[in-house]
Amino acid sequence: MIDIDSIRNEICKSFCQDILIEPFSGNARADNGDVQLAVHLPLVGRDGDGIVAYLSQTVTGWRLSDNGMTLMRLSYENDLGRLLSDARERLFRTVLSESHLQQDNGELFIEVPAASLMRGLFLLGQGCIRVEDMGLWTRTKVESAFNDDLRRALHRLLPSDDCVENFQVPNVPDAATYPVDYFIKTPGKPLYLFGVHNKDRARLVTIILQYLTVHAPIFDSMVVYSELNDVPEADSRRLLAAANDIVPSINETAILEQKIRHRRAA
User: Fold this and answer.
1) What confidence tens digit (pLDDT) does each residue in 82-105 have?
2) Domain final residue pick, 137, 155, 179
3) Are the C-beta atoms of 23 and 35 separated by less than 8 Å?
4) Cβ pair 95, 71 in contact under 8 A
5) What are residue 224's DSSP bridge partners?
6) Which of 9-18, 119-128, 148-157 is the least confident region?
């Protein structure tokens, strides 16, 4: 028989032995001016440095901070202005939200009740490692993440038989060169939906829509942006002139649902 209590005690003992706690008088913030603590966690970031949580007391518990070190380490190998722009900025916000972290002028932190200190340490450590890993995100991975989000959103809204991915419009010359991301069945004109995550994609979709307007039967078109503000104004203006409808952000799921339902009810 496996002695679960013995294993639990051994894990807890070993884990605690790997944690170093020492006073810290740097920039970590405290509400009451008390001595702050640096807690060295048995967690290692992508660059090989250990994760340190800087603790200060609050009225209701603890404030745990990375003291700005996570984004500082990222900046050694990356231009943060570019790394945390476009779709990756949305991923950054998602990582913070899922880890219950906040960001203030480059500092990642979480505030927890006194009884939740251990959970706060794990959340901060996990969040810092995930943010550091964003340095590995390539353009291809960002595009793939957006495409996955769009696919999931459409599958939640539509029966599988009413939503065809990578659709080639019939009777269109060289149709394979001008594919439609999603063909959505409606009672009236077919709805062709496209995802756009950057300026290059905006330009390509504009070309496809202009081509289909000439060679295809009457149809409606919809563009779903990763984030509208991520695409230069001139490129968006050309695309808006070619498309019938837009959803400004993949996060605007209520808008996406309303617009699709409106087209399918026509």
Assistant:
1) 677 666 777 888 889 999 999 998
2) 137
3) yes
4) no
5) 195, 247
6) 9-18
